[in-house]
Design goal:
The protein is an alpha+beta fold and 434 residues long. The protein has ten helices and 15 strands. Helix 4 runs antiparallel to helix 6, helix 4 runs antiparallel to helix 9 and helix 7 crosses helix 10.
């Protein structure tokens, strides 16, 4: 491997080194938007570990970067104390100088052999989705884990199939929730709102395909954010289609669109689960289930017997929503119709700002801002028009007046017209309002 390729695969320069003298870093596993994962070995206890090194958000000055590292250390202490059968164990954490130069936060985690739910879903594309009862059995461990952490005052904030691990063991398959690297400790007065209340930290961390409206608008996040993400994951399991799909601007528009990506919009009838998931995916946080406990209770209480397709086309369930020509991404709000979360102009501003910040220093294709919605026409002033009277029959030619001019001759073939009918009296209410 060339030196440049090695630098790309190992941006922190950790391969072949000993992290803090305790963890031998052996190979690069994966890299995401928030960090790099390595496979390593804890020398003292002779056990395999996953080492995740977090990336410091770009654009921070020295003081802000130090604040970010201190905040991570405080939250890592709390996360490390979480002990739950369906949450990956945290063995150690710290902030260290990397061989490549920068200071970076890191966590040493339990190594889990198996595959992610993301890989499982990728292999199932086009198969039509799982039955609700099967979906519930699959996600119940994750929901139970979220119920536990929400009661501890912790929100995960990055729920997605890539952070759900399917682990095969001696007693069968188990499910574990990974990656509390961007978890948030909730303050006592944190509560769901409209989604427009700005986050206190000023930093936004999320995976766009599983983001909530408050994340892309940099609003207040919490357990309600995890509820939204679980709604997206459950919809994907029911349909074998991503709930949100697209590139950059299109994806961010879908996150805040008034029409929510429930199974029904993907051609799947899930019975009593449709309103349950619609509430989980509400644009405004205050309209959702407030935490994982409420969502879990609703799902368990309304398990439909089977999933039906609303289309006779066997390929209908394999068509991504982003390719549909019948459903616009952003709809104009009509007077008297369904109210949107924000005015359309605010949505366009949120989408543009979120896209710019999320891309950060990455290169991006040229694009244009989302189209401004057409102005709402001013209300038409009511006008009163009286009902038209009955048609008047042809009138006889007027008789010539005795004037100084020569009278006109009468028509040669004119015949006397019939007498006109008597006029119809007008009633007080005989009018039309336009």
């Amino acid at each position: 491997m060339s030196q440049d390729a090695t630098a790309i695969a190992d941006p922190f320069g950790l391969l072949g080194t000993m992290l803090e003298g305790r963890f031998r870093v052996e190979r690069h596993v994966a890299e995401g938007g928030f960090g790099v994962v390595y496979f390593g070995h804890q020398v003292t206890l002779d056990r395999p570990v996953a080492i995740k090194v977090l990336k410091t958000p770009p654009g921070l000055d020295e003081n802000a970067a130090a604040e970010f590292r201190d905040k991570f250390a405080a939250e890592a202490k709390t996360v490390a104390r979480i002990k739950h059968p369906h949450i990956v164990d945290v063995y150690d954490f710290g902030v260290s100088r990397m061989p490549a130069g920068p200071l970076a936060p890191w966590m040493a985690l339990e190594w889990l052999p198996g595959q992610t739910l993301e890989a499982d879903l990728a292999a199932r594309r086009g198969r039509g989705g799982r039955a609700p009862a099967e979906v519930l059995r699959l996600v119940e461990p994750v929901l139970d884990a979220l119920v536990f952490v929400h009661r501890q005052g912790i929100a995960h904030r990055d729920i997605k199939p890539g952070n759900i691990m399917l682990v095969d063991g001696p007693t069968g398959r188990t499910v574990k929730l990974l990656d509390f690297g961007i978890a948030k400790l909730m303050a006592g007065d944190d509560a769901p709102g409209t989604g427009m209340t700005k986050t206190a930290s000023g930093l936004a961390a999320f995976s766009p395909a599983y983001a909530s409206p408050e994340q892309v608008s940099f609003g207040r996040t919490g357990p309600w954010t995890d509820v939204h993400a679980m709604g997206l994951v459950i919809c994907e399991l029911l349909t074998d289609q991503p709930a949100l799909a697209g590139e950059h601007l299109e994806l961010f528009q879908q996150v805040v669109a008034p029409e929510r990506p429930t199974p029904k919009t993907r051609g799947r009838d899930v019975g009593a689960w449709e309103p349950v998931l619609a509430k989980a995916l509400a644009v405004q946080p205050m309209q959702r289930w407030k935490d994982a406990a409420e969502l879990t209770d609703a799902l368990r209480a309304h398990v439909p017997a089977e999933v039906k397709t609303s289309s006779t086309d066997p390929m209908a369930s394999t068509i991504p929503a982003s390719m549909s020509t019948s459903t616009p991404i952003v709809r104009t709000v009509r007077t008297g119709g369904v109210r949107s979360f924000w005015p359309a102009i605010a949505v366009a501003m949120v989408v543009g700002t979120a896209l710019a910040i999320w891309l950060g220093t990455r290169s991006q294709p040229e694009g244009t801002a989302p189209p401004e919605p057409p102005p709402v026409p001013a209300a038409k002033t009511p006008e009163t028009t009286h009902a038209a009277p009955p048609p008047t029959p042809p009138q006889p030619a007027p008789r010539p007046k005795h004037t100084a001019r020569r009278p006109l001759p009468a028509p040669e073939t004119a015949s006397p017209p019939p007498a006109p009918p008597p006029p119809v009296p007008k009633k007080p209410h005989d009018f039309v309002v336009e």
